[in-house]
Q: What sequence folds into this?
């Protein structure tokens, strides 16, 4: 590999193939952590390795960038054996994201993102330009965040910087070890959605490790379920795994609520969204009531000036004269995004008093509503089709 | 005390500024040599024991033993080998810095978060690049804290080397002071020695702050 910097059009992913790979940490004869594992991950897809703890999923992932060396079989990237390169050079060509992020506390955000390009000796101007580009790509303003130290970032911002850092040298392959495992559920949903949007643009081959079946179903193009001792129990699309688990182990692992889990396959953006009755603080109550009457609706969605949701106002909130204030609104469930799964949408709605989910775009601006009815329609459809 | 002579004579200080300056310079030089040499030896030992953790106990044990030898006894042990010389003085001074510096360097490097090391490894740093660009910068505040303690300790100990003909400001305290019952020299030596220790400590702290702006970002948030 030469040190010349690749040009902006991102390199699409590479095929990652594991051929009869095994790993034994002790001498021959000790039980294997991973046993005779063969997987082909098509270019540009997200492959999620999932399984109970001790199933060797992280070990498997680390054998790709040789943080752990396989004791048997071989791993290839676009046909090239990973053993053909020195380990450090191999790792510079593979993005790496870990749960605790592991940002370097003594480097600014921009310098953190520039780590691998600098290891590859890109010209300094190109490194700065690239880290600028990537911060924008993950939705962090380079002027605001570039000069900050990681200690001054929130958990979500750190995770985004971690993803930007992994993408910096435009690697065809990215390894992600429980990347969203350490953040709260609402933020995790957001980060997952952002990542899916990002992946739609960059089309990397991603090996993603998690112990969370729901996350696997949401993120994966393909799921590899590993059993104890690193034996591959099933490798297929989420849909196929939920529809036809290959064994009792898989059936048990994905859980009894497979029907409900299939909701994780559907995305909010797949359903027709309803148009909300919108209201702004400062409007007269009467106008809003008239608007509700015209649409024969009971609730209006109060938004701020930028169109971001604040909460619901019902008819009883609108009684009397005067003007609407932000304080009149009852906060609803956490906003959903088109990439959110129907399952997350359903649980968010069930937790809220108004059983409508507010769908927002990446700038948090309301784009529509989703109803519980629409989701149960999908559930009925799935049942009728015999799943 | 000799009759008729005032207790403190500012005029003596003015008359002997050259000599006082020379002793101060000598004091600084001996301290710098001792702490620098001690640092490099400790750093090498720290890298050694990190690679072979079983050596940590014995190495710290030896450094601790040296630290516990009274300075006069250590000179007595060394004089047959290296004579009454700067080398003898420095061997002793360096010996006393080892325990402090080694323990701080090892603690500092051990304190680098595992996730940071894991990320560095996964991104393709070579072990040497990782040490130089990641581990050392992060360990710096704790390492400098050790250097500060070692420096202040050494500044105190340099005075004792007067007994083997060195001594820096110790010369003013012991040879021209105590031995001749001359208080002005004693106070001058003591005051300068204390001032030097305080100055060195603050200067090192200032350098550390300059080198680790990120550490304050962390404090600011906490």
A:
């Amino acid at each position: 590999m030469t040190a010349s910097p690749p040009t902006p059009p991102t390199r699409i992913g590479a095929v990652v193939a594991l051929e009869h790979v095994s790993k034994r940490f002790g001498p021959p004869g000790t039980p294997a952590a991973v046993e005779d594992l063969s997987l082909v991950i098509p270019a540009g897809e997200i492959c999620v390795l999932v399984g109970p703890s001790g199933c060797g999923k992280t070990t498997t992932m680390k054998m790709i960038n040789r943080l752990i060396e396989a004791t048997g079989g071989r791993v290839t990237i676009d046909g090239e054996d990973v053993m053909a390169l020195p380990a450090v050079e191999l790792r510079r060509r593979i993005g790496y994201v870990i749960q605790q992020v592991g940002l370097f506390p003594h480097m600014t955000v921009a310098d953190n993102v520039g780590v691998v390009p600098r290891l590859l000796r890109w010209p300094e101007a190109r490194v700065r330009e690239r880290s600028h580009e990537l911060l924008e790509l993950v939705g962090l303003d380079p002027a605001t965040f570039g000069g900050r130290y990681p200690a001054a970032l929130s958990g979500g911002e750190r995770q985004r910087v971690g993803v930007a850092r992994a993408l910096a040298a435009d690697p065809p392959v990215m390894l992600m070890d429980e990347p969203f495992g350490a953040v709260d559920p609402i933020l995790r949903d957001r980060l997952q959605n952002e990542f899916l949007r990002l992946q739609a643009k960059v089309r990397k081959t991603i090996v993603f490790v998690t112990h969370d079946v729901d996350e696997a179903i949401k993120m994966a193009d393909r799921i590899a379920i590993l059993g104890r001792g690193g034996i591959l129990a099933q490798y297929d699309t989420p849909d196929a795994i939920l529809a036809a688990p290959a064994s009792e182990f898989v059936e048990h692992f994905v859980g009894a609520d497979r029907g409900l889990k299939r909701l994780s396959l559907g995305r909010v953006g797949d359903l027709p969204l309803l148009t909300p009755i919108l209201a702004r603080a400062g409007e007269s109550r009467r106008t809003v009531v008239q608007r509700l009457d015209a649409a024969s609706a009971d609730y209006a969605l109060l938004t701020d000036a930028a169109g971001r949701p604040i909460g619901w106002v019902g008819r009883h909130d609108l009684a009397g004269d005067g003007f609407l204030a932000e304080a009149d609104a009852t906060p609803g469930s956490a906003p959903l995004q088109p990439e959110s799964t129907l399952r997350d949408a359903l649980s968010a709605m069930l937790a809220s008093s108004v059983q409508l989910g507010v769908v927002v775009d990446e700038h948090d601006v309301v784009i529509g509503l989703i109803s519980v009815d629409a989701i149960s329609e999908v559930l009925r459809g799935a049942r009728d089709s015999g799943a | 005390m000799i009759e008729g002579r005032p207790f403190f004579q500012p005029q003596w200080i003015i008359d002997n500024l050259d000599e006082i300056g020379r002793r101060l310079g000598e004091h600084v030089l001996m301290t710098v040599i001792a702490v620098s040499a001690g640092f490099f030896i400790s750093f090498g030992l720290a890298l050694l024991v990190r690679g072979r953790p079983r050596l940590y106990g014995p190495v710290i044990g030896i450094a601790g033993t040296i630290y516990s030898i009274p300075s006069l006894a250590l000179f007595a042990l060394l004089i047959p080998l290296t004579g009454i010389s700067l080398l003898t003085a420095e061997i002793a001074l360096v010996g006393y810095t080892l325990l402090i510096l080694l323990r701080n360097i090892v603690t500092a490097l051990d304190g680098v978060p595992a996730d940071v090391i894991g990320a560095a490894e996964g991104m393709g740093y070579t072990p040497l690049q990782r040490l130089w660009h990641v581990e050392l910068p992060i360990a710096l505040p704790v390492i400098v804290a050790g250097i500060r303690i070692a420096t202040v300790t050494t500044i105190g100990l340099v005075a004792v080397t007067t007994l083997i003909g060195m001594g820096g400001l110790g010369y003013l305290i012991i040879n021209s002071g105590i031995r001749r019952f001359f208080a002005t020299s004693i106070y001058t030596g003591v005051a300068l020695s204390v001032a030097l220790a305080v100055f060195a400590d603050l200067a090192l702290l200032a350098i550390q702050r300059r080198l680790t702006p990120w550490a304050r970002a962390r404090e600011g948030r906490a």
